[in-house]
Amino acid sequence: MNKKDAKAQGAATETAPKKQTILSGMQPTGSLHIGNLEGALRNWVRLQEEYWMYCCIVDLHALTAEFDDTRAFKEKIFQMAVDYLAAGLDPDKCAVFVQSEVKEHAELHLIFSMLISVPTLSRLPTYQEKKESLDSYGFLGYPVLQAADICLYNAHKVPVGKDQEKHIWLANDLAKRFNSTYRKVFVEPEALFTDIPLILGSDNRKMSKSYGNHIPLEATEKETEKILKKYYTDPDKVYQGDPGNPDICPVYLMHRVYTPSAAETVAPPCRTGELGCVDCKKTLTKNLNGALQPIRDRRVELLKRPDYIWEVLETGRDRAQQRAQNVMEKVRAAMKMNYRKKK
Ligand code: TRP
Ligand code: SF4
Fold first, then answer.
1. Closest ligand to Cα 270
2. Engineered SS bond to 168: which of 3, 12, 187, 191, CB 3.0-4.6 Å?
3. 318 lies in the same domain as 235
4. 130 is catalytic
5. Distance between CA atoms of 103 and 152, rounded to whole angstroms?
6. Which ligand has the minimum distance to the alpha carbon of residue 39?
7. Is 332 a residue whose pLDDT tops 90?
8. Are 84 and 77 in contact (CB under 8 A)?
9. 137 part of a folded domain
């Protein structure tokens, strides 16, 4: 999208109230895995057809944990943008951009930080969990910055996992507080919890890069096969003939996503012991590799055009900035902090 189109879209956003806005955010963790794909990305790809989408790579949030190790940020952002596009995010429908490139995030964060008490923030479970290792002023404000991300675009909906419930509630609360303290500027955002087909990691925990139990989108067919071979299964099913329980097996969970009619073709023979884990994993390897192939092909193509990726992030930034500046002008006007002579 060129700059002129970006401007038109920014304006259209304001004049077409029927089309709602979605803001999604993800920390720049580098290339993505199938948990990200099935838990978030596929949903975003669907949502971009119906909503104005803003897809924010939140590098400032990543600073809270990695303030002394920022060297890899640029490469991680690049890889993530590649995976977004490979998974089907369309830069004409969804502004993909980097948070710190739109300075208004920092500005609104500061204003919002006045509207919330320190005890409220320090009671949040996400803070409690990590306060021993992360006790910075910035980390305490993490959810305030997240609220700024969301409200800066007047997003109606925020697609997130359940673990983010309190953060979205807080964004909603801050929007309300601002509106009642000054005047109505913000939409009160709501979480869009998705019916996530849960994918678990090779050790049966949540799939996460930091656990090293993930299947990267960029893995080759062979690498995928290798990871699956080591995957956790029902520990009571030791030999092929042993009956198994698919309901506690992460391999079966993936079958439910990648194998049509898994409930008929995988679960019953697993239960009777007719199906062994080795064969079961072979089928899954084939189906998973089949499903990932188009994404992997697009990845390879996109990696040949690094300039294009950076351009997508630039036009995304322009579009985001347009909207953000528009909202911030309203914020300053509501606060009587627009120190300009009247037009
Ligand atoms: N806190 C979110 C997470 O850990 C990331 C995030 C930052 C986010 N800003 C956001 C998510 C805005 C949704 C909307 O996953
Ligand atoms: Fe899991 Fe398949 Fe083994 Fe059953 S047969 S325990 S579903 S890997």
1. 2
2. 191
3. no
4. yes
5. 11
6. 1
7. yes
8. no
9. yes
Do 293 and 311 belong together in one domain? no
Token duo for residue 203 = 């050790």
Give, for ligand 1, the residue of 53, 54, 61 to mutate: max count of ligand atoms closer than 8 Å to Cβ.
Answer: 61
Q: pLDDT of 56-69, one tens digit each? A: 999 999 999 888 88
Instruction: Tell me the pLDDT tens digit for each residue of 191-207.
Output: 998 766 579 999 999 99
- 332 alpha carbon to ligand 1 midpoint, in Å? 25
Q: Are residues 112 and 253 in the same domain?
A: no
Q: By alpha-carbon position, which residue is closest to atom 15 of ligand 1?
A: 26
Question: How confident is residue 343, by pLDDT bands cut at 50, 70 and 90?
Answer: low
pLDDT bin (cut points 50, 70, 90) of residue 170 is: very high
Task: Find the domain containing 246 and state its range.
Answer: 221-297
Residue 226, domain member (yes or no) = yes
- Are 313 and 97 spatial neighbours (Cβ–Cβ below 8 Å)? yes
Q: For residue 330, indicate whether it is catalytic.
A: no
Give the CATH number, domain containing residue 260: 1.10.240.10
Buried b (16+ CB within 10 A) or exposed e, 182-219: beebbbebebbebeeebbbbbebebbebeeebbbbbbb
For the question of residue 237 being annotated catalytic, the response is: no
Domain count, the chain: 2
The answer to whether the pTM exceeds 0.85 is yes
Question: Residue 210 domain-assigned?
Answer: no
- Position 228 scores a pLDDT of 97
